[in-house]
Amino acid sequence: MSKLPPLAAVRAFEAAARLQNFSRAGEELGMTQAAISYQIRQLEQRLGRALFVREKGRVRLSETGQRLLPTISGAFAAMGDAFAAISSDDAEVLTISAAITLGGTWLSARIGRFQLRYPDLAVRLLMSNDLVDFDATSVDVALRTGNGHWPGLRTDFLFRSHVTPICSPVLLDANHIATPADLLRAERLAPNDPWWAGWFAAAGIGTPPPPRQGIELDSQLQESIAVQGGFGIALMTPLYWRTELETGRLVRPFETIYEPGTGNFLVHRDNRVGVRKIERFREWLREELAMDRQMIPEPLWEPLP
């Protein structure tokens, strides 16, 4: 067959097959049931095969129809995404989803520079620890933590997840913290978090810390408030707290860093490669991270295996 079937017939088939009902397909497409039936019969005659099995006033997909439906539906979805991308680009609004800690610290402190560089782009920053559903939202890009394998998404590795103990200078002096073992008796936030056991092991203390009661908060943003108030020491990401560490409001007693085996990625739909606002954000993000490269060891900038 040298030419594609008429788009109207294919559209009628996709709607009827998806809804399993000619009348509902007609309502969705603004056509009569008879028109839907006519378009489908035209398509069946062109193919030389039945797409539906008609029985007792009802229809169900034939084997050929079942084979065609996923591909046809995917093609219409791709076309819809293409037109939506153009519409979204015209609006010139970049919607970013980020985890609460990364979005509320590192990114929020810098996103103004992106706005100044591209004043024609409006920026909307959403912060949540839930994975964004690109199919159900208007989000353009997300900063996501994980292993980097998300079907249907383009992933750009940024840096490996990492934490180290961080506290206030007052708490450091009051608890006479000089060695990693001293943290076993200090007030630790989320003391039963398995990352503490990982950090102690990385620091050369093989015996896991015993379970204890303590404060557990939802994000490093909350932990930073408690830490700066002198209420404990927390496992935090130094990259996010550069200003506080440089000004001395927070201190990191030890160089040991624990890497939990996950990474941070910039992700978006793989069919939106080349969209201007996304590409500009990707370029800007890498420039900003390059300025913070000295904050963490070089191996943490290497992609996950």
From TrEMBL:
It holds the Pfam family LysR_substrate. Signal peptide: none annotated. Residues 5-62 form the HTH lysR-type domain. InterPro entries: LysR-type_TF_proteobact-type, LysR_HTH_N, LysR_subst-bd, WH-like_DNA-bd_sf, WH_DNA-bd_sf. Keywords: DNA-binding, Transcription, Transcription regulation. Belongs to the LysR transcriptional regulatory family. This is LysR substrate-binding domain-containing protein. It comes from Sphingopyxis soli.
